[in-house]
Amino acid sequence: xxxxxxKVVKYTIFLIMVMFLNIWISYTVNIWSFxxxxxxxxxxxxSEISYGGAVPRPPEDDPTKDGEGFNIDLNLHxxxxxxxxxEISPNNELAYYSKDKLSGTHMDRKNNSNLLHKLNPxxxxxxxxxxxxxxxxxxxEIEKTDETGVRETELSDIFISVKTTSKYHQSRVSILLKTxxxxxxxxxxxxxxxxxxxxxxxxxxxxVNTNCSADHRRHSLSCKxxxxxxxxxxxxxxxxxxxxDDVYLNVPRLLEVxxxxxxxxxxxxxxxxxxxxxxxxxxxxxxxxxxxxFATGGAGFCISRSLALKMGPYAGGxxxxxxxxxxxxxxxxxxxxxxxxxxxNRLTVIEEFHSHLETLWLIRPHQLKKQITVSYSxxxxxxxxxxxxxxxxTQDPTRFLSLHCFLFPNFSECRVLL
Length: 418
Ligand SMILES: *[C@@H]1O[C@H](CO)[C@@H](O)[C@H](O)[C@H]1NC(C)=O
Ligand SMILES: *[C@@H]1O[C@H](CO)[C@@H](O)[C@H](O)[C@H]1NC(C)=O
Ligand SMILES: *[C@@H]1O[C@H](CO)[C@@H](O)[C@H](O)[C@H]1NC(C)=O
Ligand SMILES: *[C@@H]1O[C@H](CO)[C@@H](O)[C@H](O)[C@H]1NC(C)=O
Fold this sequence. Notes:
By secondary structure, this protein is an alpha/beta fold. The protein contains 13 helices and eleven strands. It is 40% helix and 11% strand.
């Protein structure tokens, strides 16, 4: 049967319409998935603005501008705004800032779907990759963004707090100043308990006198952690990393590891020094016990922005001290208590954090480049230090100078070793 010209035109038009319908459908689906990401960004933006700390806000690069590289048409912007207005969920952290009393009842409990993807950071990446592919049509390639279009984490996105005390400025802090401090000067803040003009001259605003007492009791420690937390919140950085003054932090390695996690998800990264979770008496329910894991403060730990915002009601505005006193725990245990017990999140164990409670000389020299932190202890009869070639033990009892030269031989102090 022959087709008339009219019929050919009809079929052609029909086919073209089907094609357009197809394109339209796939485009709408893409907008939809794109919006989900944007909304998450939006709501975190709102909650950040609402954080009212008494701490001065250091200048910062706006962490909420992650998606700005995108060149999307007006329609997209419009629908994005519309959605975000109604999508600020009722369980947003922002609500908790207005509450003075600590109460766990309204906490948004993580459900299994969230936990699942917590167990494997890659799951999210893979999902993200799929999404980006889906709307590659309208999006120009931008360098240094991950699969979800979020700007890759830079060193400037990390807040590094070092807890120290006036007694250790000379013996401990000075070693840090000679070594890894120089790789991240702008990111590092030292939290101490006295005015020290000599160090103030070097560090300026980056040396913070917490006005906490200088002893090693629970209250003094949590007092410092409270100030650290508030400074971090005011900095609005993506990551809060805490270390003690007897730690060598491998700065580039820390950055590399943090890039594997999203600051918009809840992450508590660190390493416990116990083989079992901490068990404490539940002071609210007589006869009951609470168990939870915590990352040893002496090994260092990092908390994502998203999680830190949720910690606000228990840790922000000085409330960390109240929480620590309530459960009668030291600072690092209290962090674990807030995150694991009150917020129902999980510690993600990162093996590359090392405190002085570990046998440090067991780290093989060829593995040193991969470690995030190492420590030392000077008190035992056999010093517990890492095994690294370099300066002799009189010049470098902590091995930090040798490690620094091993990792960064380009520093001028290291020339004598070559
Ligand atoms: C878990 O969370 C997801 C996404 O936030 C939600 O859609 C789902 O209903 C939740 N499931 C439960 C059991 O709460
Ligand atoms: C410690 O006290 C001094 C003097 O009163 C004050 O200027 C400073 O802000 C206090 N530090 C903190 C972290 O509150
Ligand atoms: C360590 O090296 C310094 C300088 O090279 C030297 O004076 C000192 O004797 C050495 N100490 C030991 C214990 O080898
Ligand atoms: C040494 O190299 C590292 C990176 O490998 C760099 O960040 C640092 O600035 C360099 N230091 C000097 C003194 O050149």
